[in-house]
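User: Quick sanity check before I run a bigger batch. Here is a single chain. Can you write out its predicted 3D structure?
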Amino acid sequence: MNPNDYQREALRTALPRALDRQYLALGLCGESGEVAELCKKALRDGEPADFVDRLRRELGDVLWYVAIMAHIHGLGLDEVMACNVAKLRTRQAAGALSGSGDYRGEDDEARVRARIARLEADLSEARAEAAQWAAALDALRREDAAALLSSAPPAAVLVVADGDGWALHAPNGRILRDGVAPERLDAAVRAVLGGGS
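Assistant: Done. Predicted structure follows.
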């Protein structure tokens, strides 16, 4: 029997409610579990005389769920099988049959290199922003309004905190410095904040 003939025969036994992805996924897990349970018991207790016959039946149940799952997604079993063999040949040629995940070998190396490049760019950006925050904090400590306004990162916000002083706030809500008396900051800062001169 060829794969697509099997798939057609399996479909004839599928009840309408079985043509549901979630139902099929759960059934596939259950039947795969029965294969695992059969093998576990053979390992623990020794292989029974009818082990191969029972294994054939359980693998058939797994295959039924695979065939129906493929069908509801418009896939023929021959197509699924060919795709799997092609994937395995690619892994074998790349020397990547062991390991985990669907994408190994050269594709995996390219993805890892791309991820490293993104992380390096993120790190560079974070270092630049940290330098901006450090310069803004230094300007706040020196009470240098012009330097503060020119060095603060775009996301920084100067606020009056309960009339007690000024603070430089990060977007995550963390206060970098507060308690500088408002009257000690020059008019330029107060003007930016709408407080007049």
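The radius of gyration is 33 Å.

User: Great, the batch can go ahead then.
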